[in-house]
Amino acid sequence: MSAAKVCDGMFRYAPEVLEKLAEGSRFRAEGGESGYMGKAVEIVESTREKGFKESRSESPHCRFGAKPRGRHFDLTTSYYGPSDVDSGKSSTDAVRYDLGESALVGYNSAELLFECISPRLEGSRVNPARIRMHIYQVDLSDDDAKPRDVYLKLAHSAALSVARELECENDGGLPERLVPRRVK
Predict the structure, then answer these.
(1) More confident residue, 57 or 62
(2) Angstrom distance (rounded) from CA 134 to CA 147
(3) To bridge 108 with a disulfide, which of 29, 114, 140, 169 should be the other Cys (CB 3.0-4.6 Å)?
(4) Cis omega (within 30 of 0) for bond into 147
């Protein structure tokens, strides 16, 4: 499949970034691919219905790799609590970016937290949905370190895809075009 179709279209806003990072233009699913967008939206909706504490361990994932022997990645979507924003629970190599509620990028991963107010999510005007996107390169060696902005662009594409699927106001506060800005 093409980069724009990986994980049910989660990277449609940055397919060329995924191709460059993965070192390939054709991809194969390795688990969790089928209907990922629907599962991601479902976890947000069901977490709001059940309550955050009951659903904390639930998070659909999509594992994929470039063909024939390119790099492998894992994408997860989950719900986060208010205490997760700027909690300081990041690896020592993480760099904070000005995006969404919180964006942390390490040498092989990115985590992006954003809030969503949507007519599809009852009560979200008072209590917005809190959505976490996390992408992780599974097979990274110390020699493979890539620019952090690359991981952030992939997390942004996945988050923007979910925000638009959920019809979040103002795309969940995420910009159409990402201009990465580090927080000092």
Answers:
(1) 62
(2) 17
(3) 140
(4) no
DSSP letter assigned to residue 181: -
Percent of the chain past pLDDT 90, that is, above it, reads 36
Q: Look at 98 and 37; give whichever has higher pLDDT.
A: 98
Alpha helices in the chain (DSSP H): 15-22, 36-50, 52-55, 148-165
* Rg of the chain in Å (alpha carbons): 15
Percent of the chain with pLDDT over 70: 85
Bridge partners of residue 103, in order along the sequence = 97, 112
Instruction: Check if the beta carbon of residue 114 is closer than 8 Å to that of residue 101.
Output: yes
CA separation for the pair 73, 55 (Å, rounded) = 24
- The whole-angstrom separation of Cα 131 and Cα 159 is 8
d(Cα 152, Cα 176) in Å, to the nearest integer? Answer: 14
> Which residues on neighbouring strands pair with residue 77, listed in sequence order?
133
Which pLDDT score, from 0 to 100, does residue 55 have?
Answer: 44
Three-state DSSP state, 130: strand
DSSP bridge pairs for 61: 76
User: What strands lie across the sheet with 95-97, from one edge to the other?
Assistant: 27-31, 61-66, 72-79, 129-137, 109-116, 102-105, 95-97
Average pLDDT estimate for 61-72: 81
